[in-house]
Amino acid sequence: MKISVEMTVQEAGVINESRGYLRDSAIELKDLLEWTKSQLIVIADQALTEEQAKGFDKEPIMLVDGKQNRSVKSVSPLGQIEFVARAGFQEVLFDTYISLMRRSPVKTGRYVDSHYVFHNGVQVANDFSRLQRWANSGPELKDNDTIRIVNIQPYARRLELLGVTAQRTQSRKEDAGRRNKRKKGTMVKMPNGAYQLTTRAIRAKYKNNLGIRFTFLPGTSLGLSGVFKGGRKKNSSGRPYLYPTIVFTINSRGLT
Asked: For the chain, which residues make up each domain, given as ranges?
């Protein structure tokens, strides 16, 4: 749920008399815009107070002209102020896990059974029912805690780069220098499998409600020793295995 407040001026240089403001054809545009901006802020605050009295989120995410973490005073005179109710921790986590399951390729069943959840490097679940039990148990979550969903199969990275999902196989490539804006002319494979697609879908669904990122996690970064449940920290050449991972960080506003 979200509250959106915006204002428009239909007659330049005129303030509505019916609201108790003087009509002055000589009023400067600058003064009109300042008044419009102040009224937008006041109305937004009133609308939020009224909705919170009906049960709306007491600490919503505020978007000023579509951008988060901006001062309300920076709103454009003809801009927009939005208040977005925060998604619950369980809602986002469960939705992400279910999305991964739906996109998981199923052949032997090992991949779909290998989505493990870690809280600060400690395994808390390896299937949806265990994830539900952990989340419903009221785990103590502190600022800067990290929750990761990781597929621990050694071949998971390859499936991610090949774009293999339950629905289709579709790889994608981009210039090796695109991310640092230095074109190199070399095309490299980019992730396009279950983890990357789930990250995009969850980000699109919840938009500014949370931050979520996809990455490849070295097995050595999990803080676990030796072999962990079929996944390995290093391959036969001694290099760390990389595992597709969805990462959330906890802060006072929830998942970010």
From this structure: 2-84, 89-255
Biggest alpha carbon distance in the chain? 81
Whether 222 and 121 have beta carbons less than 8 Å apart is answered as: yes
Q: In this structure, are residues 249 and 146 in contact, taking their beta carbons and an 8 Å threshold?
A: yes
Q: Read off the pLDDT of residues 42-95 as tens digits, 9 standing for 90 and up.
A: 898 888 888 888 888 777 778 888 887 788 888 888 889 888 776 678 889 999
Q: What 3-state class would DSSP assign to 43?
A: helix
pLDDT digits (tens, 9 = 90+) for 168-192: 888 888 776 666 667 776 677 788 9
Rounded to 10 degrees, the C-alpha dihedral 211/159/231/104 comes to 70
Strand pairing class (115-119; 67-68): unpaired
Closest Cα to residue 231, out of 210, 211, 217? 217
Q: Could you tell me the pTM of the whole model?
A: 0.70
β partners of residue 187: 175
Q: Is the pLDDT assigned to residue 23 strictly greater than 60?
A: no
CA angle 168, 174, 176 (to 5 degrees): 140
What is the rounded CA–CA span in Å between residue 85 and residue 119? 25
Residue type, 130: R
